Structure formats: structure tokens, C-alpha cells
Amino acid sequence: MRSDNSPFDRLGAGAAQLRLLATSDLHGNLLGYDYRADRAAGGTGLAALAQAIARLRQGPGATLLFDNGDVLQGTPLGEAGTDGAGDMPVALAFDALGYDAATLGNHDFDFGVAAARRLARSTRCAVVLGNVTEPDGAPFLPPFAVLERQVTDGAGQAHPLRLGVLGLTTPGVARWNAHHLDGALRV
What we know:
Elements: E1 18-23, E2 33-34, E3 39-40, H1 46-58, E4 62-67, H2 76-79, H3 89-97, E5 101-102, H4 113-122, E6 126-127, E7 144-152, E8 158-166, H5 173-176, H6 178-181
Parallel strand pairs: 1-4, 4-5, 5-6
Antiparallel strand pairs: 2-3, 7-8
């Protein structure tokens, strides 16, 4: 991650910056906590990135934030809500940090189809998945999304931005998670 935006502060008229940020394999590590050692683990977890994400968003241009999947399995906090009760902390974290889009990884199916669907419906960001379908061939989730944003150029002029986002998971989900999918989805 770049710690200095100064080269981008000199953008001229007509030139704009698009900054793409992504997280991957969070495995429920939302807070800086080591559950195995039962102690705080400063500088770790998604919360440790929150300030950097906010700072980068204040820079020139536009910043989009994505997640590449595998967010649910791994910690008690990440697994909370997968049983259908209460809020899903992962979805709340995505909304608090202003994620633009996400996709599901193989571990996001570890709690069954209902939990994966609930995660997708519980967050305001677009959750897309292009290679998983219902048994009848209908998409399990939208295969893609078109994000419409504004990007400001070096002269302060706003320009519309349309960005297509596609999400795919590993085909291994069909084998690794077969006991969770129970024939309800095809990969």
C-alpha cells in the first residue's frame, strides 16, 4: 500500500486516478484478536486496515473497495450469524468500511447455502458470483454488477465512471463443499 499520495496530487485537467483496494481470505479476522491465544493482537484484522482505507479514500480520484471471498470461516466473530440468528458481523463490517463489491470463496459455503445467501443479502455492497447456479441453471447470485461512481480529475471536474465487476469462486467448491451444498447449487 502506498503511504504517500503526493505523485497523485499533481494530476492535471482530464487526468483522474482510480484506486482499487481489495481484501482476500479474511477468514473472520475483523478485529485485532488472536482467538487461539485469547489475547489482543494489535495491527491485525480488518479493523487495522480501516484507517488506511479511509486515508486512501481522502486522496484524489476515486477509490473502490472489494473483497475476494473466504470471509466467514475462521473466527467466532466471522461465523456469527451463519446460523440465521442475529446480525452477520462480516456484513456489518463491509457496510461500515463502504465495500463496493464482493464475491464468495469456498469457505463462504462452509456453513451451507443459506448462510452464503444470507451474507450476500445482509450487506449493501454488490455480491457477485458468476460460476455458481441453482439446479435449474438460474444464477445463485448476480454474476456481475456495474458500479456507477464519480471520479474527479486534477482540475476538480467530476466525471462519471462505470465499472463492471465479476466474481468467480474456485470450481473446487463442488467437491470440497459437496456435503454443505447437498445438491442445492452447481459450480
